[in-house]
Here is the input.
Amino acid sequence: MFRAAGGGLAVVAGLLAAASPRARAEEGPRVIVITAKRFEFSPKEITLRRGETVRLQLKSEDVTHGFFLRPLGIDTDIPAGQTAEVTVTPQEVGRYRAICDHFCGAGHGGMKMTIVVEEDGGAGINLPGAES
Ligand SMILES: [Cu+2]
Here is the structure.
């Protein structure tokens, strides 16, 4: 007796695993959390890269604060106990000072932080004449 090997199921892997062009875009921008409370921001300094889009999550731990940085086009309130989000893509290298511009009490005038914008690629290398 011979038994023919019954037609084994040849599973043909089709092109089901089509590449998803959205995969990378969905990673989204880097998120940086900044905490605001009387009368300071934390951290006191953050570093961004020129041309990199980042999302700043601004969290108030007490009262309503502001977050104002004109050169980067940021001017928002941080409602009491809540989180405000701003998305920014810095275009100029430099050191910027963000201040609280919503009166929050006696130490309000000194409530600020620094945002450093570095050349993408870091390392502080300046190529003469490379500016476009
Ligand atoms: Cu304030």
Notes: The chain is about 0% helix and 40% strand. The beta strands are 30-37, 40-42, 45-49, 54-60, 65-69, 74-78, 83-88, 94-99, 112-118. The two ends are 83 Å apart (CA to CA). Residues 65, 100, 102-104, 108, 111 surround copper (II) ion (CB under 6 Å).
